[in-house]
Amino acid sequence: MKKKLLITLFVLIMTAVLSVAVLAGCTDDDSDGNGAKVINIVVPDGSPAIALAKLINDNAAPDGYTVNYSVVAGATQISTAIANKTADIAIAPTNIGATIYNKTGAVKLYATVVQGALYMVGKESLAGDTVQEKLASLKGQTVFNIGQGGTPDLTFKYILDHYGIAYQATDVEDESYVALRYVTDGSELLPMLKQGTAKYGILGEPAVSRANTNTGTSTVFDIQELWKDVTGAQTAGFPQASVFVTTELLNGEHAALLSWLSAGLKDNAAWAKSNPATVSEVLASKGSTSLNGLTSGMIEACNLDYVSAVDAKQAVNTYLSALYGFAANTVGGKMPDDAFYYAG
To answer: Which among 157, 205, 307, 334 has the fewest CB atoms less than 10 Å away?
Structure first.
């Protein structure tokens, strides 16, 4: 009897010990095992990833932190990573960040880093002397665009609306409107341009340079310049992609981390233009599939520039206001309030 009792007690004790161990393994521990806080930075492939290249290449972090980087396919994965709390810092389309803020309040805009990298390329030049005449000559033609419902699509539609030029999302061409069709990314559109199944397309760098080099196209519009004309912005371009930081890191305890982040992002543009081959290499190591063979010219055309949230506020408001007036859901149904902008 005593033997059975001892066996029962032993089993109960071991079960309790194992349960504690399992529970300990399931806790939300954000350290690396050596006491350093793990910071996960996520960025979509393309020009936003180039804005992070120097930090990745330096492979450094402030004392007390371990930083991991991931390059993902698109903005949808950024939203998911923030929602799942698997990203602490992200570079994302500015309107996507505004949407996340409006819906969850989980992030703040820390800085803008890509000031527009969109261009229209064409196999043929456009008729007309003015911008409006050239855009009007696209009636009866099809313009392919990357990312339906995303920044390239929204900005082009906004420009067409400004000039009173009708458009439809259709594969039927008609002289009364511009036909709009969509592809997932530049890698899908480039073969179409080369084969002649697409005549005009809106792309981001570095796909624009690849199109003009390999498919017989030329740049017919700089979307950044068109945006300046239609919005009355003081400078060309718009805050296409921004850095968003989760509110947990903005409580004053992580000043060293944020200072390190700012310094690396500020130095990135000049460094990247001087080291295009290294940029391609380090980004490929983190998951990029579209940035091989970069040149200094491609990187320069990405319009990389770090602007703090305080200094970028007016440009961001102009950009988001235009999108909000066009389609409120593109910024989360309302304009973000002042708390959206990190003021530290």
So the answer is: 334
- CA–CA separation, 264 and 29 (whole Å): 27
Q: What is the separation, in whole angstroms, between the first and last Cα of the chain?
A: 70
Task: Indicate the burial class of 17 (C-beta count within 10 angstroms; 0-12, 13-18, 19 or more).
Answer: exposed
At 98-157, the pLDDT tens digits run: 999 999 999 999 999 999 999 999 999 999 999 999 999 999 999 999 978 888 999 999
pTM, full prediction: 0.86
Structure tokens at 273: 């233009």
| DSSP-assigned letter for residue 295 | -
Per this entry, what is the length of the chain?
344
Among 256, 227, 249, residue whose Cα is nearest residue 39: 249
**Nearest-angstrom CA–CA distance, 147 and 229:** 23
Cis before 206? omega within 30: yes
